Amino acid sequence: MAEDKAIVLITGANGGIGFALAALLMADPHKHVLVGSRSAEKGQRALADLQQQGLPGSVELVVLDVASDESILAAAKQVEAGHGRLDALVNNAAIGSPEGSRAEGMARCFQTNATGPYLMVEAFAPLLKKSTRTPRIINVTSGAGSVARRMDPNGPSYNLGMWGIQYGASKAAMNLITAYQAVVYGEQGIKVFAFSPGFVASNLGAHNTVENGAQETSVGAAPMVGIIDGERDAELPRNGFLRASGQSPW
Ligand SMILES: NC(=O)c1ccc[n+]([C@@H]2O[C@H](COP(=O)([O-])OP(=O)(O)OC[C@H]3O[C@@H](n4cnc5c(N)ncnc54)[C@H](OP(=O)(O)O)[C@@H]3O)[C@@H](O)[C@H]2O)c1
């Protein structure tokens, strides 16, 4: 079924930007999208929704909780058994504002947003190395994780105090993990990117609404299609992460 297609795994693709990216990729008959979802039920609904859209690409569900090492390893086994390789991995799953104490919130953000993408790449690198194309990884980051932005007295993040600090710190940690992956896996032929979709309406936080000026999910997701298709290979990150156009400093 998927032998001649590029196989793309998106974590957290049952909703938000990940779901929009799955639909955009399925507009291409040469793509097979693995929809990652930590909930089997939500994943089945997303799968049915995508299949009903009559898109030419194909799709499959992978139940995958990036906060669980066991779940990540089981997902890698499923993809290996089904396809024997992976062509692109999009580490999209994240949480915004977890409940609980400060310590719990910080730990949960780091587990999902930083440790998750780290463990995902360690588990899926052997399959990416078996890609029949140029394999690519996209770590979905955020301006909230930019140290340069946080320290810019003229920017919007300078006076935020503790607001968003758990999420932002975890994305900054993911940026460093991206740097590690870009060097180590870059030498092994895998192109590694960090990309920020900008302010998008989603379930990430209560303020992520169109009324607050957020863009549609498909607008935030669209540039990742070009990254997966190799259109931005000349922009591999050195001093920052990719945006819809250009880069922002780490
Ligand atoms: N929206 C923005 O303005 C914005 C800006 C910059 C960066 N981003 C980044 O864009 C990415 C997508 O966010 P979004 O805006 O689409 O948010 P969203 O609507 O909340 O979607 C997040 C997705 O991640 C999943 N997820 C959460 N924890 C998970 C886990 N442990 N394992 C697997 N999946 C998990 C969620 O699943 P459930 O449905 O089960 O919760 C959901 O499918 C994130 O990396 C986010 O940081 C977003």
Automatic annotation (TrEMBL):
GO molecular function: oxidoreductase activity
Pfam families: adh_short
Domain of life of the native organism: Eukaryota
Protein's GO biological process: secondary metabolic process
Transmembrane segments: 6-27
Keywords assigned: Membrane, Transmembrane, Transmembrane helix
GO cellular component: cytoplasm
Family of this protein: Belongs to the short-chain dehydrogenases/reductases (SDR) family.
Name by which UniProt lists this protein: NAD(P)-binding protein
Native source species: Neohortaea acidophila
